[in-house]
Task: structure prediction
Amino acid sequence: MKQKMFTKEQYEKLVANYKAQDGSKTFKAVVKLFNPSGLGTWYLSELNPDTNEAFGLCCLQDKEYGYVSIDEIKAQRCPPFGLPIERDKFFKSNHYDLVECKELR
Result:
């Protein structure tokens, strides 16, 4: 069964955070996405519904704050099995700020 990238509640919270943004980028992580077969974790706190770009902590080679295209994440298939990026359904939404997420694994 294919898993959605976000639940309805997570999507609404990500968009609400984007609309309430004052430039401080202090919202808590709403969702955690990860590569099920290797490197790549994203802790996202905001989503622009017009561009489908999210802001958060991206953990690839380095841990960096920035924007990521959800369309690109959805299109990605992870070697060697071609698995899609997944949502961590056990991640506690709105529990950790992005600085705290740097320490999670």
Notes: The mean pLDDT is 91. The first strand starts at residue 31 and ends at 34.
